[in-house]
Amino acid sequence: MKIKLSLARVLSCMALVAMSLPAQAAEPAAAAAKASPTTTWVYPLIPKFGGVHPRPDADAQPDPKADYKILVDVISTGTDKSKPYPSLERLARLVNLLAYSGVPPERMHIVALLDQRAGAASLTDAASRKHLKKGNPNLEILHALKKAGVKLLVCGQALAERGIQDNELDPAVTVTLSALTAPVVYEQQGYHYMQL
Fold first, then answer.
1. What are the structural domains of the chain?
2. Is the four-CA dihedral 112, 113, 117, 121 of positive or negative sign?
3. Fewer beta carbons under 10 A from the terminal one: N or C of the chain?
4. Residues 112-150: tens digit of each pLDDT
């Protein structure tokens, strides 16, 4: 079966389609502009770190009546060694997201395991200068996390391998036996594992 279309008919169809395109293109843009919230950042529990963009309309909001038991394995250090680790910023955001959602601090049970290269965040400024030849830019955020109720751990085996003494650690941090055993211990206590 052959379909014969005249040039006039083809052009007529193309013109109809072309005329409807601007209206169709404008509809999603208008809807997106209407639905797109302005960019604002709030810091409900940890000031200065881990800002949260409010989205009360978003799906999967934390339940303020639930308990949150989370073990965060902090391994990433980022590339700019003069700034706090981005993984610690994300950890602060996790805390602030829960707080923004109405979860009270007593329902947040968050343990952060400073593991692998991220263990260097646990050093005092003097110890960081001794071992790494630079100050520790992570201390302010570590203290803010600790103040917000986050338990900070560092791997005792990694400290021994690097020749770091316990008295070289910031007081906000507690030594755990190992980064290998800590997740197992906390998972047996009902903690959910997350890696940053």
1. 68-195 (3.40.1260.10)
2. positive
3. N
4. 999 988 999 999 999 999 999 999 999 999 999 999 999
